[in-house]
Amino acid sequence: MKKEYWIILIAYIGMQLSGVIGIPIITFLGTTIGKSYNQMASSAISIWLLFSFSITLIIILFLLRKEIINPMRAKNALSTRESIYWAIAGIFLSFFAQTVAANIEYLIGIELGSENTEQIVGLIKTAPLIIIVTSIIGPILEEIVFRKIIFGVLYHRLNFFLAGLISSLIFAFAHGEPEHLLLYSAMGFTFAFLYVKTNRILVPIFAHVSMNTIVVIMQLNQDLLQKL
Fold first, then answer.
1. Which of 38, 53, 72 represents a domain boundary (last residue)?
2. pTM
3. Which one from 105, 142, 143, 180 is the annotated catalytic residue?
4. Which terminus of the chain is more solvent-facing, meaning fewer CB atoms within 10 Å of its CB: N or C?
5. Active site (annotated) includes residue 82
């Protein structure tokens, strides 16, 4: 695996763990400029998420600058037009996979709904800018890490099913909801399929960003309607 890919994985893991140090620092800095502890305790998480995700994305894009400027695409990469078709179709595929997986989970006794989604919606309500993290930056980082790097490296050594299975399980466990292992794995397989089908990482990125954005908007509207 490329040295840059190792650095990206380390940066991503560091970002996920950085809140342990970053959030208390933001809280402390806020109190030094006159904010109350309670005020900072509720906003420090959002501030640090926006900061840490943005910095990590900048670092990753810098490390991948050569591939971005002069992409070494395989000969079987689909044309721009075909890739656009698959990017749009990928939105429907991802929702289909999510729906099938959710129904299977329900049949085996797993409750519908995700704590991650509820927490994300709660953060967005207190700090609307967080939607940039959940709907744009987060999916971009996940596709680069889990599809381009982890799945991509495995796919060069294994067949699609094994590479997709391993990378999707890692993707699922990374979300911290083992009860929804099937749900996240189904989405991971869908995005891996889009990547292999088009050989363009922008395609699963587009589908992932679109799916997250639609889910968040639907959840926000649902909560609003319940209050009316």
1. 72
2. 0.88
3. 142
4. C
5. no
